[in-house]
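Fig. S4 source data, part A: sequence.
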Amino acid sequence: MLADLPIAEAGRRLRAGEATSLGLTEAALDRIAARDGRLSAFAEVFGEAALAAAAAADAALRGGADLGPLHGIPVAIKDVIDIAGRPTRAGSRVPMPAAAADAAVTGRLRAAGAVILGAVATYEFATVGPDEGLPQPPACNPWDATRITGGSSSGSAAAVAGGMVRASLGTDTGGSVRAPAAYCGVVGLKPTRGRVPLAGVLPLAPGLDHVGVIAATAAEAAAVLDAISDPGWRPAAGADGAGVAGITVGYARGWFADDPATSPGVLRALDDAASALSMAGARILPVDLPGYAMFETAAALILDAEALASHRDRIAAAGPAYGTPCLRSLLRGIGLDAGDVAAAWEAARLFGARLDRELGRVDVILTATTLAPAPPVAAFRGGAAAWTPMRTLPFNASGHPAIALPAGFDGGLPVGLQLVAPHGAEDVLVRVAEGFERATDHAVARPPL
């Protein structure tokens, strides 16, 4: 079906005259109409605007104007990223003004010829969740509606895993692209800090915030990342079957294997992933990363301090409109001072330096994304502050690029691996990710919708 075509194949058919952007967009809108009533991935669907953009994309191609790999391709955008003329609601009751202009990344998608289908759901202001007391129902995990999608890019992951779009923009401050990707069995790519502009994105913790991509495959995530990146960065796309022969993968097994929160199914999946990469030609070396807890604590302190600063004025003006879990999360920053934050950033610097040393002897590092499959929604009811153990936050503080990939299943639910590379080496991440996708069948697994 048209809605299931990978971006590259859809693009080939568009250029060969075998398909139209209008047809692709209509198929995506039909899929949304059929499935989103169950999944609640979309906060708003731009039906008429999307069809008009698709018609314009078709006319441009007919006229000889080809804007690149995303020309005529439907995409979605997380509802913390400005889309001109509409409020960026961020999953909240807090009144938000209409955006005067597109965010930089929104504008770049339009310039690349992409068709914006709509805004997808987020945990409130990209904090914690899900919160069933808000106007936007929490997005459902397409594999099991009783489980969370992960946050905060919940709608982005549900829309891709649910087959409603091949790629969506998300944001990642502590794992908010990678964890939902792992929980929903899709790909989540967080770029190097500074590669993608944040202008027009509602800030949470500016020192940790990244705009990233959730997509059906690594190649599709790379194509979108290249479209939204600043000039001068090495393209992420282009591995084109290069494979993993000659690649050295450092396996940071000790970073998660002995944690009591690690599910045996996740450990098996990660061991199998290392074996699959080895069988495909990669060299696997053990690497020792510094103790996780200290660096997660330091990065969390930065997040808490910066998130409160980002929201302090809005809380003063509209505090009662915030949901309880979001407000509780934001107020964790009370009592932190500049000395605390400076010490946390120094810890982040030390972690980044240690990570760079390890990456000096391997091409990428393999570790877990989350330590267990998606927990039940019921654990969060009544504003409960449930904990979801992950291995993502320190890479936001260090700024290294990271990608989450489907790595198998645990009790019928997806689990994901995580690859981390040196700053600016998204192309290496994508090469290894594509090699892993070809060596396994995890990338083609889809929920029975």
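Fig. S4 source data, part B ends here. The chain has a mean pLDDT of 97.
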